[in-house]
Structure formats: C-alpha cells, structure tokens
Amino acid sequence: MPDKKLKGGHMAIIENWYHQIPAFTDVFTEESFYMFVVCFVLATICVVFVLSRFITLKPVD
Fold first, then answer.
1. Which residues cross the membrane (predicted)?
2. Residue 46 — φ and ψ, nearest 5°?
3. Alpha carbon of 21 to those of 26, 43, 47, 48: distances in Å?
C-alpha cells in the first residue's frame, strides 16, 4: 500500500507541472511558428558558421 501513496504523490507533481506548462497552441499561431522556425534555422546556420572559423579538427596519428 505505501507504493500506491508514493506513486500518487509523484503523479500529483507531474499533473501540477503539466497544468502549468502552456499548450502549443497557446504559445504559437501558425504564422509565429513559421517565423520562429525560420529564425531558429538561420541562427543555427550563423552559429555553425562562426564556430567553424574557431574550431579546427586535426587527424589523430
């Protein structure tokens, strides 16, 4: 029986967190989602380009 009480306690915490996180449709509209994706992809490309200038890979002999 103590296992049920412990499991219920964990489920209460998970349910609490679940209800505090906004839904996808609460955060994004269709247009804002596409704008976010485009900005994220462009930022990723820029970061990779900048990092490629500073990081060089050398073969291990």
1. 33-55
2. -65, -45
3. 10, 25, 29, 31
Going by C-alpha positions, the residue among 36, 19, 20 that lies closest to residue 28 is 36
pLDDT in tens, 18-60: 899 988 889 899 999 999 999 999 999 999 999 999 998 888 8
29 Cβ contact list (under 8 Å, min separation 6): none
Residue indicated by tokens 């976010």: 36
pTM of the model: 0.61
Cβ(9)–Cβ(17) under 8 Å? no
Give yes or no for a contact between 58 and 50, defined as CB atoms under 8 angstroms apart.
no
Q: Where are the beta strands (DSSP E) in the chain?
A: none
Confidence (pLDDT) at 1: 45
